Amino acid sequence: MKKLITSALLASTLTLSGCGYNNLQALDEDTSAKWSEVVNQYQRRADLVPNLVAVVERYAEHEKEVLTEVAQARSRVGSIQLTPETLNDPNAMKAYTDAQAGMTSALSRLMMVTENYPQLKADGMFQDLQAQLEGTENRITVARNNYIQSVQGYNTTVRKFPTNLTAKVFGMQTKANFSVENERAISTAPTVNFGSHANTGSKSATTP
């Protein structure tokens, strides 16, 4: 009896492996892990925002519009969370990526404003936050690209024969990915390296 059970389990394992079930599960886990890293890096960026706004406000307190825009963008980002279940929903993915694109845009505008404040750019804390933001934006780009590739591999396996039959049996569907439009919108990190673009003679704020 024990041999019969063992043989049945072995046959079942071989069947699942042959139909691509194990591969689908592995790919699904990979996309979840890659997405977690995307979320982790976006959260890292969001965590930098309060300190960044605080130090900018010390030198550019009249830039209320820009500072408010950044705070509101951070709030929108925090209000949208994607779970592994909602990752299959294109509308949920679009809402999330649109919110992150808004955060990118707000940070870009904030950095443009700081061009008018040489003392701010010389502040040690600001320089540290600038470096952290730049590094985080680079990590976001890497994490996002890794996720795009992972989803592409998963979706291809879900749709091609014969693994599409297995996917259908187990209710495994294609996952929503970054679209060309929103991928382009968030693929360029905010400019945080000021270099020679500083307007060192200006001491008054000019909102772009």
UniProtKB/TrEMBL annotation:
<keyword id="KW-0812">Transmembrane</keyword>
<dbReference type="Pfam" id="PF04011">
    <property type="entry name" value="LemA"/>
</dbReference>
<dbReference type="GO" id="GO:0016020">
    <property type="term" value="C:membrane"/>
</dbReference>
<keyword id="KW-1133">Transmembrane helix</keyword>
<dbReference type="InterPro" id="IPR023353">
    <property type="entry name" value="LemA-like_dom_sf"/>
</dbReference>
<dbReference type="InterPro" id="IPR007156">
    <property type="entry name" value="MamQ_LemA"/>
</dbReference>
<protein>
    <submittedName>
        <fullName>LemA family protein</fullName>
    </submittedName>
</protein>
<keyword id="KW-0472">Membrane</keyword>
<comment type="similarity">
    <text>Belongs to the LemA family.</text>
</comment>
